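Progress against Task 2.4 (sequence-to-structure conversion) is shown through the following example record, which the project officer requested during the mid-term review.
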Amino acid sequence: MMPDLGKYAETVLSSYAISLVLLAGLVCLSIWQGAKARRQLTQIEERRKSDG
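Structure tokens generated for the chain above:
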């Protein structure tokens, strides 16, 4: 159930929306950077194996 926010409803709801978008962006960025680091580590390990 949504509380009655009165004249501040637009401000509060837009703040919630912006916060959720920023949090989602941070999660996506973290996942992307983790995958990138994992790929780089795999490449380094493969290079070390092939070098002997």
